[in-house]
Inverse folding.
């Protein structure tokens, strides 16, 4: 179950984090401290979701794979938030770059067919 659910949770976590990182830019008239406070309100539940996803997926994926998922989904989530929340345009080159990141994430995370190797040593 963690094999499918953990990457989905990481993606959701990344969307929330992207809103915290750049979502406040939509409210340019807010004072700095109000933006910081609202961002922290988003970051606290995001952190719980992120850590839960990593712990859930750790038996299915290595720590390096989970970190790669987290980084790639973070960058893709920033693109999604900037496009659909802030209304910024994405060029064809941007879309190609983000597509390559998704392909990289798939290459890192998808196990080869017939692979019986465990991601994490069972001697733990």
């Amino acid at each position: 179950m963690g094999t499918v659910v953990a990457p989905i949770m990481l993606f959701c976590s990344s969307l929330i984090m992207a809103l915290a990182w750049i979502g406040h830019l939509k409210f340019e008239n807010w004072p700095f401290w109000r933006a910081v406070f609202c961002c922290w309100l988003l970051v606290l539940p995001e952190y719980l979701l992120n850590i839960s996803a990593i712990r859930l997926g750790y038996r299915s994926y290595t720590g390096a794979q989970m970190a790669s998922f987290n980084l790639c989904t973070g960058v893709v989530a920033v693109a999604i938030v900037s496009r659909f929340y802030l209304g910024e345009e994405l060029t064809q080159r941007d879309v190609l770059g983000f597509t390559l990141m998704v392909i990289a994430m798939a290459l890192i995370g998808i196990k080869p067919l017939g692979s019986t190797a465990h991601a994490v040593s069972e001697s733990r």
About this structure: The chain has one domain: 2-109. Residues 55 and 115 are 22 Å apart (CA to CA). The mean pLDDT is 88.
